[in-house]
Amino acid sequence: MSDVKEAITQAHQEEWARVVAALTRRFGDLDIAEEAAAEAFATAVQRWPADGVPPNPGAWLTTTATRKAIDRLRRENKREDKHKEAHLAYDTTPPEPVGVIDDDRLRLIFTCCHPALAMPARLALTLRMLGGLTVPEIARAFLVQETTMEQRITRAKAKIKAARIPYRMPSADDLPTRVSGVLAVLYLLYNEGYLATGPGTDPIRHDLTTEAIRLTRQIRTLLPQDGEVTGLLALMLLIEARRPTRITADGELITLDQQDRHAWDPELIAEGHRLVRERLATGIAPGRYQILAAINAVHTSARDILATDWSQILALYDQLTHLDPSPIIALNRAIAVAELDGPEVALAIIDRLEPSLAGYHAYHATRADLLRRLGRDHEARTAYDQAIDLAGNTAQTASLTRRRDQLQ
To answer: Which positions fall inside the RNA polymerase sigma-70 region domain (predicted)?
Structure first.
């Protein structure tokens, strides 16, 4: 039974986006695609324990979801005419192999990221439709209530239907202007896999990080000269290179200073560094993702934490602040300040961010670490408690709890 549960979990991680994308292509309706996919997975939960896991879970789920969608259309009588009904019910076109619908997923993400939608709606809808995240998981990623997120996703799907937003790739002329919104979504999709927010999920969701990297590679093929596409790919690769060293055998998050750098993936690091150098050689002012990639290139170039060039990292954060003066960038910049000017200077910077980041676990975790370094253990314990309450990632919670319990 446990093997079947694991197979269903794995199938959801690996096949959700493929199934939703295939159904969206066929039926042209995100609601139908999402609900039919969910019903197919619910059917798998019921039938696979008795019938066994099918040889090709993705094909089984796609076929089952297609039947569910057709049944729904019949019940709701939404087909335009009998010809369409016959086509849907008796279409004998051989189904595409499940692994050959990559373009469908790329079309799906451009549909979800259409400029007619507000950016928060684009992000939320893509995480639901492409990443398969639950509404609670997405709500935690956005630091909003679940009901708010549910309404946001529902309104986004309704707008796509009402505005007749097509399920297709943008034209070559429109592609450059459309890509920035897609990159923002892919970055958030990667971050969710890198540090999953769901308490009941794996702390690192390799399926999401892999999918984000795959889609970013495809977009770079379409726009090889776009610096931010290249920058985002480099950033993902340099972060992904550290993945094998980020979780202990006991499921605790390992911070950057404690990671075994010999176990980092040298091929991913080499590719990421090459992409960063490629953009630097152009002489064109870098964008946000290129600067973030450069920061990670500095980290992955150092043989250990003591050899890190914090001056260069701080200079890059100063450059980034001009492009993105957000509180989270200021928080990360303060970490570099702590290494150069000491924790007291950094703490003064961070305390000014409290109104904006009070609900953000990393704010309290960073503050707790600085207070600990200053010997202010009682205040550090309080800050750790706040971070633990806000952290949704199990590995992160375990790490924070250990650090808190080590205080006097």
So the answer is: 18-78
Alpha-carbon distance 99 to 96, whole Å? 8
CB 123 within 8 A of CB 156: no
Task: Give the separation between CA 156 and CA 284, rounded to whole angstroms.
Answer: 36
pLDDT tens for 315-370 read 999 999 999 999 999 999 999 999 999 999 999 999 999 999 999 999 999 999 99
Q: What is the pLDDT of residues 88-134, one digit of tens each?
A: 444 444 444 443 334 688 888 888 888 888 888 888 888 888 878 88
Q: How far apart are the first and last CA of the chain?
A: 45
* 247 backbone dihedrals φ, ψ, rounded to 5°: -130, 135
Residue 253: phi and psi, rounded to 5, are -65, 135
Tokens linked to 368: 């707790």
Residue 320, helix vs strand vs coil: helix
Q: 3.40.80.10, 3.30.990.10, 3.30.1360.170, 1.25.40.10: which CATH number matches 328-408?
A: 1.25.40.10
Tokens encoding 336? 């570099």
Q: What is the spatial distance between Cα 264 and Cα 326, in angstroms, rounded to a whole number? A: 30
Write the DSSP assignment of 157-217 as a string of letters: HHHHHHTT--SSPPPTTTHHHHHHHHHHHHHHHHHHHHT---TTS-SS-HHHHHHHHHHHH
What is the DSSP annotation of 220-251?
Answer: HHH-TT-HHHHHHHHHHHHHHTTGGGSB-TTS
Where is average pLDDT lowest: 184-198, 239-253, 392-406?
Answer: 184-198
Pairs from 140-145 (Cβ < 8 Å, separation ≥ 24) = 140/197, 140/198, 140/392, 141/188, 141/191, 141/192, 141/197, 143/359, 143/360
Distances, alpha carbon 72 to alpha carbons 19, 31, 265, in Å: 16, 11, 47
Quote the DSSP letter at residue 117.
S
- Tell me how many degrees the CA angle 284-287-292 measures, rounded to the nearest 5: 120
d(CA 72, CA 76): 6
Q: What is the DSSP string of 280-294?
A: HHHTPPP-HHHHHHH
Residues 207, 29: Cα–Cα separation, whole Å: 25
